[in-house]
Fold this protein.
Amino acid sequence: MLRENLPDLADHELVDAVAEKAVNVRRLLRNIARDFAPAVFANSLGAEDMVLTDMIFGEGIDIGVFSLDTGRLPEETHALIAATEARYGCRIEVAYPRHDLLAQTVARQGINGFYDSLEARKACCHARKVEPLQRLLAGKKAWVTGLREAQAATRDGLQTKAYDQANDLVKFSPLANWSEREVWVYLRANQVPYNRLHDQNYPSIGCAPCTRAVQAGEDVRAGRWWWETPEQKECGLHVVDGKVQRVAAVGAPEASVRSGAGETAAGVAA
């Protein structure tokens, strides 16, 4: 969020509304830990993910927390990992790309070959993100993400609960219906650590060479892979057949999979 657009904590109605939504998200997280163990949270260290990190670590919820170090993260992202561990006294498991796969990718397309084509960029994302994610999700029953529907055109229709076909487990996005403004109300009200690049107009942060600051009026993900069209801007972590998964889990009534306003995912008791 641009600094001039940060929410005013003096707006008590907004702060109270976010606090109420947070109660429901915490309830959902506790139920995931109970009913879908072992479950893990894939922490991208973005603003949304820090909301969930605060809830999981702060409440001692039994959901493992991991992050992917692609080898090309900004220094500020590494600093946030250290600050988060110091704040909560908990470790974030960090996964790295397989050296052999990454070496093959770089040898084939060059160190910055991801700029040359969509196929090359996806190959880089696969080696640095998708393959490590698949390793960490192996043997798990569910994973949690900080995805929000309003983040990008590719995430329109995002559900709180979905069946992840690629990884054969249940995927939860507890903040699916949160706004960017609500995310920042929570972060500021609870003094949650966040990536300092957000203060430099980086609302969405990935690898350093693939992320730039955004200008006023631009989409929050305009700075991610800025040389590509909006409908192409996904790294592959949340994509099946070219689209972000948005299908409700098998047996889950459509009306019951949106959380944040008193509703919980189907099959997860309130």
The helical segments are 12-35, 47-59, 75-88, 99-109, 118-137, 180-189. The longest strand covers residues 64-68.
